[in-house]
Amino acid sequence: MPEMPEVQGLVEFLRGRVRGLEITKATVANIAALKTYDPPITALQGATITGVERHGKFVDIATSGPHLVFHLAKAGWLRFTDALAPTLIRPGKTPIALRIALSDGSGFDLTEAGTKKSLAYYIVNNPADVPGVARLGPDPLDDTFDRDALAALLKERRTQIKGVLRDQSIIAGVGNAYSDEILHAAKMSPYALASSLSDDDVDRLFAAMRQTLTDAVAEASGKPPAELKDAKRRGMQVHGRRGEKCPICGDEVRSVFFADNSLEYCATCQTGGKILADRRLSRLLK
């Protein structure tokens, strides 16, 4: 799933490539992915793109008319081309959910692989009209989000820190992959209760969050969309590296599997050598 660093990379790419261009056509290929009806999709046609921003994991393309806001979900992506082919899109026969044609002949598709479709796009007058944007917590790289702000968010939450980091209403932009990376860098168990963290724990967690995300955003910066996924994979220390050696201590990277995803961690670095039970129950094997 694209998370904050990759989405920021997309935003920076689009800012440099589409700002000032007119949308000549917007073609809906998957009507289920379009979550709004007013303004209509036709309101984008003829509008000039005035800016591109990120809200958590949402991309917001502002125009002289409405905003096009989209969330790529687990298997979505943006494919940009300098010369958009005049290929007829057949709804239901393509991974394309939306095609945007631009006035210089370029354009992009929002695509989604697999059969489980959760990519979503919205045509709105204000990004806050998108429910997912309206309920976002603070951005962890915002200048106003400091160590004390993080401590205040964690103080009363008797839930696992892994879940807290992934909850977009608490902290915006971090998903499954970067929560694994942050916790590994902080030398913290994913099952640790947020409210039980000591001051030193919070210090380490905040530093790890800032450093991990700052480095990932820097790695994504300047790359075209086609290269962002590979850049993300290369930067991972533990996520997606089950069975490999931890780059810090050399222990084996292990996984805990859930219904639709998994988490990765290093027992030596994060849990004092204890192996986490591979169950939905949040407890350690004795």
Automatic annotation (TrEMBL):
Residues 2-119 form the Formamidopyrimidine-DNA glycosylase catalytic domain. InterPro entries: FPG_cat, FPG_N, H2TH_FPG, Ribosomal_uS13-like_H2TH, Znf_DNA_glyclase/AP_lyase, Znf_FPG/IleRS. Keywords: DNA damage, DNA repair, DNA-binding, Glycosidase, Hydrolase, Lyase, Metal-binding, Multifunctional enzyme, Zinc, Zinc-finger. The keyword Hydrolase applies. The keyword Repressor does not apply. Residues 237-271 form the FPG-type domain. CDD domains: BaFpgNei_N_1. It catalyses: Hydrolysis of DNA containing ring-opened 7-methylguanine residues, releasing 2,6-diamino-4-hydroxy-5-(N-methyl)formamidopyrimidine. It comes from the Bacteria. SMART domains: Fapy_DNA_glyco (SM00898), H2TH (SM01232). Its cofactor is Zn(2+). Belongs to the FPG family. This is Fpg/Nei family DNA glycosylase. It comes from Microbacterium aoyamense.
